[in-house]
Design a protein that fits this description.
Structural class: mainly alpha
Number of strands: 0
Low-confidence stretches: 3-14
Largest sheet: none
Mean pLDDT: 77
Number of helices: 7
Length: 171
């Protein structure tokens, strides 16, 4: 017949096994936690490396696109980057800048090839088309900016800039 002291000894022995099992489980959980932490750190490092690789690839693509655009516009990459920075400060996007520069080039080409109307727009600003046609685009842009800034009022400045940068003049 079991007595209370036998039960107490049995419970103590059972509880001791229980606590030993808990300690063993905690040890295993600690090892598992360490392994999961190492795997997570590795994945984060890999993700960081992947992000860095993506950043470098994106930067290289942007540099290549800028170099190709500079070639198309016949300006140096440095000049184009400077123009883009200035345009950004003025709130003008790269697409608008590119479109304006391309239209300026087309209009200058048209004037240099004999379009009387287009040539008249440049000459009305005191600009010599033959001289401009032999300059790098960045220098042409500077001459045009100086000429339009010399106009008496903002309406005349805007009209001249629209004529040269926003419209393809024909004639």
């Amino acid at each position: 017949m079991a007595t209370i002291s036998d039960m107490a000894v049995g419970l103590t022995l059972s509880a001791g096994g229980f606590y030993a099992g808990i300690a063993k489980a905690e040890g295993r959980l600690g090892s598992f936690k360490g392994a999961v932490g190492a795997v997570a750190a590795g994945l984060l490092a890999l993700g960081g490396a992947s992000s860095l690789t993506g950043l470098v690839e994106g930067s290289m693509e942007a540099i290549d696109a800028n170099a190709k655009l500079a070639d198309r516009l016949t300006v140096t990459t440095e000049a184009l980057t400077g123009l883009q920075h200035g345009a950004d400060l003025a709130g003008v996007g790269n697409e608008e800048l590119t479109a304006g520069l391309q239209k300026l080039q087309r209009n200058l080409g048209s004037a240099a090839n004999g379009s009387a109307e287009t040539k008249a727009h440049f000459e009305s600003l005191g600009l010599n088309v033959a001289e401009l046609a032999n300059m790098p685009l960045a220098d042409v842009l500077g001459k045009v900016a100086d000429a339009t800034n010399a106009l008496p009022d903002s309406f005349a400045k805007s009209a001249a800039q629209v004529d040269l940068f926003a419209r393809h003049l024909t004639g």
